[in-house]
Inverse folding.
């Protein structure tokens, strides 16, 4: 195979008989000293350096535990955070392809598989989601023009992303929408349940509901809309009024 031309730009490269293209999301080999997990990045540029080695420019996806705030209760098992942090890496650190879906696509995908934890939603349509506009040997890798696909017969690992991390400011660009009495975001791996009266969404755990119990319910009313809760509120007001009149 003819070595790639030095100081040139490409739209694709082939590594171990797998074609990788610009905008593909890939798993990148992590440092054995720092991480047992591969890094995740989106290919933004493919070029060769002065020696003809293939260099890949990637924008990184952060795992929640890699953020300053760490992994929080609302972070899903397969959640990653898109960022503007870009690095050049050697082509031979690329491991394989993966894919990053937005939250709506991810939930559709998990509902169609046997994977996922105790998650799910009960109610009409689920909580609203917003689609975001997620050593070298030159003879082994070739950069060339064109397109293609495949992952060398390997299963493609699937992640989802719903946030964007601004690396220079070290903060998430837009906060996630919150739900429930705890005012926390949704964890797509855990149960969310919809009140039939106010149509608001609540975390199953906050309401003391398990997926198994929710599955057998024909409907559900949140504590604030439950007739007993309203009755208690009315009785309390009447009691206060009577006490005031007694004075």
């Amino acid at each position: 195979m003819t070595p790639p031309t030095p100081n040139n730009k490409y739209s694709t490269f082939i590594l171990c008989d797998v074609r990788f293209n610009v905008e593909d999301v890939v798993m990148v080999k992590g440092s054995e000293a720092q991480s047992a997990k591969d890094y995740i990045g989106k290919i933004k540029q493919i070029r060769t350096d002065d020696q003809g080695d293939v260099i890949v420019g990637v924008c990184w996806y952060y795992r929640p535990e890699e953020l300053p705030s760490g992994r929080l209760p609302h972070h899903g098992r397969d959640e990653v955070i898109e960022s503007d942090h870009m690095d050049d890496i050697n082509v031979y650190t690329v491991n394989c392809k993966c894919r990053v879906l937005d939250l709506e696509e991810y939930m559709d995908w998990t509902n169609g598989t046997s994977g996922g934890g105790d998650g799910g939603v009960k109610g009409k349509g689920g909580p609203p989601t917003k689609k975001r506009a997620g050593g070298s040997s030159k003879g082994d890798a070739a950069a060339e023009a064109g397109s293609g696909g495949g992952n060398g017969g390997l299963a493609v690992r699937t992640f989802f992303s719903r946030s964007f991390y601004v690396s220079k400011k070290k903060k998430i660009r837009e906060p996630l929408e919150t739900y429930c009495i705890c005012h926390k975001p949704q964890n797509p791996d855990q149960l969310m349940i919809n009140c039939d009266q106010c149509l608001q969404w609540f975390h199953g755990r906050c309401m003391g509901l398990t997926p198994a119990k929710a599955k057998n319910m024909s409907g559900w009313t949140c504590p604030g809309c439950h007739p007993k809760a309203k009755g208690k509120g009315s009785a309390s007001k009447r009691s206060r009024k009577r006490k005031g009149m007694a004075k």
Q: What stands out?
A: The chain has three helices and 15 strands. The radius of gyration is 25 Å. The longest strand covers residues 39-48.
